[in-house]
Amino acid sequence: MSDFRNQSVATEKSEADASSQDEAGSSSSAPKHESGGRSSFWSRATRLWRMTGASSLRKDLTEALMTEDTGSEPAFLPEERAMLHNILRFREVRVEDVMVPRADIEAVDQDITIAELMVIFEDSGRSRMPVYNESLDDPRGMVHIRDLLAYVTKQARNKRRTRAKNGTAAAAVAVAEKPARTPKPEFDLGRVDLSKTVAEAGIIRQVLFVPPSMLAADLMARMQADRTQMALVIDEYGGTDGLASLEDIVEMVVGDIEDEHDDDEVMIQRVSDDVFIADARVELEELAEAIGRDFDIRDQLEDADTLGGLIFASLGRIPVRGEVVQAVPGFEFHVLDADPRRVKRVRVTRKRAGSVRRRERRPEGEGTTIPADRAALPEQQNDGASAE
């Protein structure tokens, strides 16, 4: 019994000595693992956490990212630093921060035909679309382009044909008289009934319904569990508020993800030094950077994030096409395109000091008021001429 106790004490002592050696030699053994070129992103992050020695890794990483790298080899590349900033901020992001607003949702009615759906997919370049019944506030699910392709392929491979049954004898005579024909191909797109509706084809999938206050991280976990990549954001009254996809959530961390179908949208077009044409969805900070320092929007950032939101907050309503808005001192906002739901395109003009807007000259007699004495003068001259 005493030998067993002595053995256990010796074992505990050896384990304690080993742990102390590991703690003391961790710094010396780390370079051996990272030898042979530039270390990986996560190994450098782990090394930085070890150097701090504090209990909270999040706090240590935040402080490390705020400090500037002065050495010859920076701890993180600029892209890595931006990604880590996004990761630390990700737990505060909500669905309403990443969703596509209702006005920008591209959806289809469940009563459209398969042919119409194929055209819409081709024009939009999207692979998924929400499906609704009469209104976007009555969503029924979503349709995936792979399900559409599977439906068309299945119908084209269907070997069932309608033939007139005239009896075995008549069929035998017909076979004897007519030469053998080449068999029809197994794949025939002519068999596809393109007049069927999306609901009749049975290609509508279920979609997630989430509130706008839900954390984006929780939605991503739920999407992974349900193996879906689209969710409709529903407001407190049951109406559709927006649309969130897994790609939108991932872009909050890694930045914009563009595929071969994404077109480069020109958000700000510089016409001259004082005139800019901008998409109403452009961020105010991005617009201010393009225009210059005199475009002071510090007071407006509390009420709006985009150019369209700035105009809406200034008027308290959605403007009509052609309306001129004074939303920022020293600038005029001319609404070039709008619909009853939102502003689409705006021309921003800088007003120079001392400049006066000139009115277009109208032809004589159009919208002008002639004094009575001048109006009577030509008639008197004509009367005098006729009298002569």
Q: How would you summarize the topology of this molecule?
A:
Elements: H1 2-33, H2 41-52, H3 57-66, H4 78-90, H5 95-98, E1 100-101, E2 108-109, H6 114-124, E3 128-133, E4 135-144, H7 145-156, H8 168-177, H9 198-201, E5 204-205, E6 208-210, H10 216-226, E7 230-234, E8 240-245, H11 246-254, E9 268-270, E10 275-279, H12 284-291, H13 307-315, E11 324-325, E12 331-338, E13 343-350, H14 372-387
Parallel strand pairs: 2-3, 6-7
Antiparallel strand pairs: 1-8, 3-4, 4-5, 7-8, 9-10, 10-13, 11-12, 12-13
Helix pairs in contact: 2-3
Structure write-up:
With 388 residues, this protein is an alpha+beta fold. Among the domains are: 39-90, no CATH class; 97-160 and 186-254, CBS-domain (Roll); 268-350, 2-Layer Sandwich (Uridine Diphospho-n-acetylenolpyruvylglucosamine Reductase, domain 3), CATH 3.30.465.10. The protein has helices at residues 2-33, 41-52, 57-66, 78-90, 95-98, 114-124, 145-156, 168-177, 198-201, 216-226, 246-254, 284-291, 307-315, 372-387; strands at 100-101, 108-109, 128-133, 135-144, 204-205, 208-210, 230-234, 240-245, 268-270, 275-279, 324-325, 331-338, 343-350. It has a 5-stranded antiparallel β-sheet. A hairpin with a 5-residue loop joins strand 7 (230-234) and strand 8 (240-245). Helix 2 (41-52) crosses helix 3 (57-66). The protein is globular, with a radius of gyration of 36 Å.
- Give a quick account of the main beta sheet: strands, pairing sense, barrel closure: 5 strands, antiparallel
Strand content: 15-25%
Order of helices and strands: HHHHHEEHEEHHHEEHEEHEEHHEEEH
CATH topology of the domain at 97-160 and 186-254: CBS-domain
3D shape: globular
